[in-house]
Amino acid sequence: MIVFHTILNNIYLGNIKNKKKKFLKNYILYNYNNFNYFNPKKIFINLFLIKKYLKNIFLNNKKILFVSTKNFLRELIYKYARSLKQNFICNKWIGGILTNSKNYKKILNKSIILKKKRNMNFTKKEKNLFLKKEKKIEILYGGLKKMINLPNLIIVTDIKKDKIAINEAKRLKIKILALVDSDDLIDGIDFIIPCNNNSVNCVKIIFKILFSDIC
User: Fold this and answer.
1) E strands of 39-89, at which residues?
2) Tens digit of pLDDT for each residue in 176-188?
3) Which stretches of the chain drop beneath a pLDDT of 70?
4) Which residues of 71-105 are buried (b: 16+ CB within 10 A; e: fewer)?
């Protein structure tokens, strides 16, 4: 019972203010002082169904791309993506990562060349420049090194902040799992988890529930 209430307080209560938009009205239990309170029963049903879907993803060796450009979630995304041996974007979404994947592959190849150059007969200044460029590529594209083909699913923590990623996935008919707030427009999203996605504790709990039996 204590665990249940802890989860409740972190995820479903006191979410973002919403006066005009009611895209998730079916998930809202009530409104108090202009804050929405989600229906925990409906959220748990969603989590259970999504957890089953994710297990099938891994059993069939399909691939996931984690997408979250929120700074406070970076370490959490690193942790789960690496534990699950999946791809990730945590710093900035560069347009065309999904729709024009040749570009990022060329840039990653450039990173390999820069690394080789640092062991060649160049000046210290030139080597430092190569290292600087290599680090920049690593920050932007390092999480895609093992992404040979398009992912079967992308997991997004904020569909407003990462709308370019969402739009690219929709164009390519890639499945989308999103953590959504009470004022998010969820058209075209395959799996939704309504929650307070501005809380790192909330996202931690959700990921722990979803992946506890997998990693």
Assistant:
1) 64-67, 87-89
2) 999 998 778 888 9
3) 1-23, 32, 215
4) eebeebbeebbeebebbbbbbebeeebbeebeebe
